Amino acid sequence: MYIGNLNIKGVVFCAPMAGISNTPYRILARRFGAGVVYSEMVSSHGLAYNNDKTKIMLDFLPEESPIGIQLFGAEPDIMLKAARIVSERKPDILDLNFGCPARKVVRKNGGAAILKDLGLTRALVEAAVEGSSMPVTVKIRSGWDELTKIYIEAGQACQEAGASAVTLHARTRSKGFSGSADWSDIKRLKENLDIPVIGNGDVKTGPDAQRMFEETGCDAVMIGRAAMGNPWVFREITQFLETGEEHPRPTPEERIAIVGEHARLLGGIIGERHALLNMRKHTAWYLKGLHGGAVVRSKINTLESYEALDELLSDFLKDYK
What we know:
CATH superfamily of the largest domain: Aldolase class I
Shape: globular
Helix content: 40-55%
Strand order of the largest sheet: 3-10-9-8-7-6-5-4
Largest sheet: 8 strands, parallel
Structural class: alpha/beta
Strand content: 5-15%
Number of strands: 10
Low-confidence stretches: none
CATH architecture of the largest domain: Alpha-Beta Barrel
Order of helices and strands: EEEHEHHEHEHHEHEHEHEHHHHH
């Protein structure tokens, strides 16, 4: 598929997730077959005002490409400045977040709150397109609540303002991540747009992805929570779409090995000690369903080195067998 002039080889994308989608996470997702990966949400305001911590979030490595940098914000002039700053880093895509349901984001009129004002929606996309040297895409929700589902109007506004693709998380902001995604919204959006539509919501397996493609006609699927602690999901879904066969689930040995590698990749960015602390949540996801995994998670915070982590994981694997 094409997003603007960018030829994307895969149709299974890795969603941007705050506090999760950093470089190590994205490297692993790309290795296992994600067609596109995205940064965490980056504040357009932080970039425009030269905040060092915000600028660090723009860093990425060549092996992450194709990568999209996702911005959030509610001021067109600030979005224009931020888009120009992102363009200097030369990612493959600039993505705008009009779907985040988090209270701290929407109370500043960002994320899903943008959908309450279609004029602002259009103005923000126009500003991003003006400031960007790469294709601009937009991630939206179905609406603010079930009574105000304006995803078609929002998608059309994005398209008319110059967006090259729209991702629809088929839940309203009021739903958060609860209940079931309404894939019929994705279908209707696809029928009303000429640019690619990427479907998001409740795709966890190859059969799920196949059904979303068949039911909605979308151009790609985006995986979020199902990829946490499970980078193999991109490989599994891609194989099913291509062959109709389900790839074997990763063995305990594979899952243990990825914990150590993820920790080291993370340590290369934030240092060994901080990486081990940060790995607690990732380890819980990687070892989910394996007996004794909770013990490993609880002990990680006490470790001082990768070697201690390796020993802990080795002991866990011996006991597991």
